[in-house]
Structure prediction request, 194 residues.
Amino acid sequence: MRKLTYFIACSIDGFIGDESGDATFMMPFVDEEFLAFLAAEYPETLATAGRRALGLDGLENKRWDTVVQGRGSYNEGLKQGVTSPYAHLREYVASRTLTESPDPHVEIITDDLVGKVRELKAEEGELGIYLCGGSRIAGELFDLIDELVIKTYPVTIGSGMPMFGSGFSITEFGLDDVRTFKNGVFVRTYSRKR
Prediction:
């Protein structure tokens, strides 16, 4: 069974963006040290255009070969004319309103997101699935998430979009790793206790 990992950025108080999902206030923390960490440990999470701009096109996928993201997250790239933000991965976008893909490399999941992700998890392969974001789809897929990788930026925002857009549910995860950076960012990795 392939692993589904929710790899997400958040504020100290647990929000992944403001009420509209905008998280650009976190970008100043992606400095040289942190970017080197991402390139070395999580190269899949660097968008294709960013990899190209940084001369990192040749990076191999280390953890994931598939990405699932929500319409809001995908829409950020579309605003810039980017129809395939993670061309180095198989791309799926969960959307009830986007019925046709603007790119042949991107498959739109319009219904039964949970069923589709179960299918992806059941595939053979050593690499897992990167859940890129969207509070709502993270909430919808919560029971299927095996691992959390939470990049916490040293800011509070008071209110905004939570990590999970779902109801109240206490679920225990075990802490596997913590990595800290000089700029105040820390990255925690948790595995679901099953």
